[in-house]
Sequence to fold (270 residues):
Amino acid sequence: MSDSDTTEAEATAAQPLAGRRALVTGATSGIGRACAQRLAADGATVVVNHREHSADDADELVAELEAAGGRAIALVADVSDEAAVRKMFVDAAEQVGVIDLLVNNAGVEEQVELMDMSLDQWHTVIETNLTGPFLCSREAARGMVEAGVPGVIVNITSVHERIPWPGFSHYCASKGGLKLMSQTLARELATKGIRVVQVAPGAIVTPINKDVLEDEEKHAELIAQVPMARIGEAPEIAAAVSWMASDQASYVTGETLFVDGGMQLYPGVT
Ligand code: NAD
Fold:
């Protein structure tokens, strides 16, 4: 191996996503924020998607990523709003180039049992967690195919793409649906140079489960369901997303990578 080969290999190892243009939905908190930080550190230009009320957080994150030597912009869109998603992808292409790495991360959950669930509650979860990834994946794929560039779509599902969870039927329907949508898109887009994969977090410290994490009893119950006996951290999900998006995973498509301390293996989980 020549010296120049060695230097190139070292550069790729240090920044495996150099030259890539990523868009992370719901990027101002929790797992999305960690993904934006990790993808930028790994060399990607990052579009920080956020909702209107998170504009300050998005600007602050962009400033943080740029101060660390990365390149980032913020773009507003509710992922369930078709016109807003279309505009976001047009703006992204104009400002940073065609998006070739989409992380469908934005998501919501709310505990409510079937007999008490309103149609609005059902719609909010399904539209954010399932319609959002559909709209964003469609625009991303159109952009990549039109420009003739290969790319990756990473869908953040959950251990609940597989484990039924009483009180969260809308959430489980959205994540199970997202898994099969993702796998179907993996087949549809495989010959177009686009990989579509799932990263499925277990219980992770983020604002989405603040209530459980702040309640000692519920926290202990949750940890009891995790073979590794600890809650995960958002950067541990981001590391998996970065790897799945990188060329190291070049022959991986349609696959779910569970990042859950073994939670989905545990026979006690219902
Ligand atoms: P979070 O609440 O910190 O992040 C969710 C983000 O999505 C927020 O930034 C929010 O503003 C954004 N968002 C919500 N609705 C949106 C919309 N309509 N348009 C654009 N953005 C929107 O929670 P998190 O834990 O970081 O969740 C990120 C993803 O990880 C979600 O899809 C969630 O289901 C999944 N997940 C989380 C856990 C966990 O334990 N934290 C476990 C499994 C899966």
